[in-house]
Amino acid sequence: MGHLHLELFATLDLVGQAPGGPEEDPEGFAFGGWQAPLISDVEGEQVAAAYAETDALLLGRRTYDIFAAYWPQQTGWIADLFNRIPKYVASRSRLDLDWDGAHQLGPGLPAAVREVRERHANTRVVGSLDLVQTLLNERLADRLDLWLHPLVLGEGKKIFDGGAVPANLRLLAPAATGPTGTVHLRYSITDEVPATGTMA
């Protein structure tokens, strides 16, 4: 079985909503595009390395719409990758998908995601916070790439708002810091329940 990777950008208070621009989430969120002023070449290289062995994308409906409107018109390695590999879209509504290689998942999301994991070695979930929360609740995610940015917004949708089940995470590599203060953390997500104890 392959691995399902979560690729997430968040603030220090774990807001992951609309990092790339105001148009990503037009629901009155005042800070859409909060990530843009903090992007550096270092973070770009980290993202490139994270995506190097991607076989498929798993996207929520809103992220799919944003990507499908943007990436087919772009050039470069990430555009070539996204346009070439299969894209799986999770949505309860019937969709008309016109991006080459896009497929809608069936109504039984956990089973459909397991089939995707069987089919591909490395599937990546980008953004799609509602989908991410479902995947965490169903224990379907294997890895987490998390870029923490030196911001506190105090509002916006948070990564773990959906009541993720308790789980231990294991650091896969030392944390890497970029020149703007963004920290890249790479974890595996285990099935282990966090232990408790006393400091005495």
From TrEMBL:
Where would one find the signal peptide in this protein?
A: none
Task: List, alphabetically, the SUPFAM superfamilies matched.
Answer: Dihydrofolate reductase-like
Which BP terms from GO are recorded?
riboflavin biosynthetic process
Top-level taxon: Bacteria
The Bacterial bifunctional deaminase-reductase C-terminal domain extends over 6-173
- GO MF annotation terms: 5-amino-6-(5-phosphoribosylamino)uracil reductase activity
What is the protein named? Dihydrofolate reductase
